[in-house]
Amino acid sequence: MIEKVLIANRGEIAVRIIRACREMGIETVAVYSEADKEALHTQLADEAICIGPAPSSESYLSMERIISATLVSGADAIHPGFGFLSENSKFAELCEQCNITFIGPDSSVIRKMGNKQEARNTMVAANVPVIPGSKEPVYDAAAGAETAEKIGYPVIVKAALGGGGKGMRVAETAEEFENSFNTAQKETKMAFGDDTMYIEHFVQHPRHIEFQILADKYGNVIHLGERDCSVQRNHQKMIEESPSVALSEELRTKMGEAAVKAAKAAQYSNAGTIEFLLEKNGNFYFMEMNTRIQVEHPVTEWVTGIDLIKEQISIADGRKLNYIQEDVKITGHAIECRINAENPKKNFRPSPGAITDMYLPGGKGVRIDSAIYSGYTVTPYYDSMLAKLIVHAKNRKEAIRKMRSALGEVIIEGIDTNVDYQYEILHHPDFESGDIDIEFIERL
Predict the structure, then answer these.
(1) Are residues 399 and 424 in the same domain?
(2) Domains in the chain: how many in total?
(3) Radius of gyration (Cα) for the chain, nearest Å?
(4) Is 292 a residue of the active site?
(5) Which phi and psi angles does 245 have, rounded to 5°?
(6) What is the pLDDT of residues 161-180, one digit of tens each?
(7) Range(s) of the domain holding residue 70
């Protein structure tokens, strides 16, 4: 039985995990950098250990320091949250070697699904729909151009390893290809230390639809419905909702079955996400698998009533799933807005600094996941997300109204935020009608 969990993360997700552990009667250990000494997660955990200076490379990305903190504290499990080391197969393997329970999938699965080319090949073998693309890694522009001609333009050049929108470039024509490939490859090498690329047909004006899955170690796999994550900027999600207005019941069933099939093909266990691109004609394609908890997991928790963090811990502890597919019922509609410390009027420039005053909304059907407080200093070292505001109502129209009301109550003084920008999106006619795709923000 897991008795003490070290959270290898910071911010709101660390707080979220601590709260779930408390409810399960599990002790918690927080780790923090010198910049995060006064962070909320360090105050809420049963223990807190400093693991290094502010730069994440010397703290939250230091595998050795995190493993050492785990051993010193006597924790028997690590929850990686999202970001940082959450999808690092080497870190998961270190945990396995040190007899520390990694709250996530096996290292071999993370390695396989983290390589986009290998993940793609796995899905092809399992008859999960994939976007037409290269079957082998591509290392130079000349070979890439030949592949692009066979696939058909437009194409997108992607990093085989990595994510977060880095190492991606679109080539509309053969004339654009060489420059797009070289630019993407250079960015990939700088960001991930690897120059392996692959090429896909570029799906125009798609929606980004992802299915939440849960899988135990005994081969049981279920999905918890979809999230529509089409409102995004530079491949970074801004607003997520569930269910998607674009899916009929027939299409939802078809995509859900494909997601379960994908997880089984990967021999997956724990919580994960199968991400698809959905065309307007109803065709959908596997894009990638996230082998961790997602930022937007509260949206699914609202509409299903299932606590995903608790399920993660339970599965890692060797227990069978608490649910079968027939138990999963989608009720109402949920929307999440990511509140960031940034200035949309100045090209979304980050806005670190001290929060001098704040008020966050509440009430029936309103949830805040955050780690900020009045007097808290937002540092320039990490992601700019301050809070997640999530609402739930009986239908999409009411959920939009509730989110507008909640955003209108948010007060965060001392720094810039994207609250007003989100408020404007919630009033846009295309968002109201559900006529959105991943290029929606670019058209504003």
Answers:
(1) yes
(2) 3
(3) 21
(4) yes
(5) -70, -15
(6) 766 677 999 999 999 999 99
(7) 4-103
